[in-house]
Design a protein that fits this description.
single chain; about 0% strand
Length: about 120
């Protein structure tokens, strides 16, 4: 069984996500933005990696097996998965790790000026 180009791209994206997440967690103090994967991360790096790989390999395997029955549909779904994965990754990365979310950038109207000023001086 040969992998479709879309499956290979999805595997590369997932592997890059895994490696960058591990790097950022250990060296930059980043947080896991995916609540499901954050749950597994609490059980250690090994569990996190095992679940990440399982959640990568299993859907690709099912898609590759299914392409013999509905190749156009599978290709469309893999392309949709690629776009969704990259978009979600970028959104979560910017929101969680760089604080670019609406709640992080908007000052609290009900906070006293002293509390707001003190919180802006944090590293």
């Amino acid at each position: 069984m040969t992998l479709t180009r879309e499956s290979m791209v999805l595997i590369v994206i997932c592997a890059a996500d895994l490696l960058s997440t591990l790097f950022l967690l250990q060296s930059q103090g980043a947080r896991e933005g995916n609540p499901l994967m954050a749950f597994y991360l609490r059980y250690g790096i090994g569990t996190f990696v095992m679940m990440k790989l399982t959640l990568m390999v299993l859907p690709v395997f099912i898609a590759e097996w299914s392409k013999q029955y509905r190749p156009r549909f599978v290709r469309l779904m893999l392309r949709t998965a690629i776009i969704t994965y990259v978009g979600t990754y970028l959104l979560l990365f910017l929101t969680v790790n760089l604080g670019m979310g609406v709640a992080a950038s908007a000052p609290d109207k009900h906070a006293s000026p002293a509390v707001y000023t003190a919180s802006t001086n944090l590293p």
